[in-house]
């Protein structure tokens, strides 16, 4: 049986999709993918991501400044994001990819926090959800989200922390992104977390072309492989597959206000 999926995190503005958009979307649709959220990672990609969403109904744009690139972001980049949201907010589905990353050699945490706070403020101002990156930073990120108190909340994508950390985000009203990590049997901590969280708090994602699934190491990840993430999640959860598919689809549709 083919279910309907929403890939809530795919960097479709990068290779191998660039120049192959129609074929890539057709491949994804064959596996049941009905929609894809495309988060930008730096200001130079804002127009590219917006253009993709205008050209293809299957795509929605999210705009944000990724913490991994803290060294390249400039103050005017936040101003550019603010201008787009003021003028074209109806074309933007979420603010993202934003967040914190303490896995970097030079994390520049004060700068990261300031950048995050400015973007959380914009999300609140425009009543948009956020797409959050977090590596070794779940606790400080949760603190910032608690302070920001966004009405629309958002999703912590590619989550690989502890159950207690995931539950802290869920208590704040945030969704948890389930990706290809669970396809690796050695990732027992993450697999156990996704098995125990409420189904009402989960979304599916690929992070394509990054985060290859088990069996595809060394290859670009692709949005159609969200179906394989789903199948693995079904192996870990007690609920029937149709319930898992239906609840997660509804979660995604509701968070991003998708007219599907």
UniProtKB/TrEMBL annotation:
PROSITE patterns: TATD_1. GO terms for molecular function: hydrolase activity, acting on ester bonds; metal ion binding. SUPFAM superfamilies: Metallo-dependent hydrolases. Keywords: Hydrolase, Metal-binding. One of its GO terms (cellular component) is cytosol. It comes from the Bacteria. Gene3D superfamilies: Metal-dependent hydrolases. A divalent metal cation 1 binds at residues 9, 11, 97, 207. A divalent metal cation 2 binds at residues 133, 157. Pfam families: TatD_DNase (PF01026). InterPro entries: DNase_TatD-rel_CS (IPR018228), Metal_Hydrolase (IPR032466), TatD-like (IPR001130). Belongs to the metallo-dependent hydrolases superfamily. TatD-type hydrolase family. This is TatD DNase family protein. It comes from Enterobacillus tribolii.
């Amino acid at each position: 049986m083919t279910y309907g999926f929403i890939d809530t995190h795919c960097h479709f503005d990068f290779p191998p999709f660039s120049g192959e958009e129609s074929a890539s979307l057709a491949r994804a649709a064959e596996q049941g993918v009905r929609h894809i959220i495309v988060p930008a990672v730096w200001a130079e990609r804002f127009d590219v991501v917006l253009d993709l969403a205008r050209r293809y109904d299957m795509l929605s744009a999210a705009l944000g400044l990724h913490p991994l690139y803290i060294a390249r972001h400039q103050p005017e980049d936040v101003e550019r994001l603010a201008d787009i949201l003021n003028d074209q907010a109806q074309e933007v589905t979420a603010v993202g990819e934003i967040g914190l990353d303490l896995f970097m050699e030079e994390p520049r945490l004060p700068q990261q926090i300031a950048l995050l706070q400015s973007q959380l403020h914009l999300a609140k101002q425009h009543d948009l959800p956020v797409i959050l990156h977090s590596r070794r930073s779940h606790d400080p990120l949760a603190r910032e989200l608690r302070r920001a108190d966004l009405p629309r909340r958002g999703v912590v994508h590619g989550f690989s922390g502890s159950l207690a950390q995931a539950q802290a985000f869920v208590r704040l009203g945030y969704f948890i992104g389930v990706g290809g990590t669970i396809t690796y049997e050695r990732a027992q901590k993450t697999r156990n977390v996704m098995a125990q969280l409420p189904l009402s708090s989960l979304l599916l994602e690929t992070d394509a072309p990054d985060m290859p699934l088990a069996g595809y190491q060394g290859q670009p990840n692709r949005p159609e492989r969200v179906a394989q993430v789903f199948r693995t999640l079904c192996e870990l959860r007690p609920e029937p597959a149709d319930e898992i598919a239906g609840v997660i689809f509804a979660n995604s549709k509701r968070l991003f206000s998708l007219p599907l």
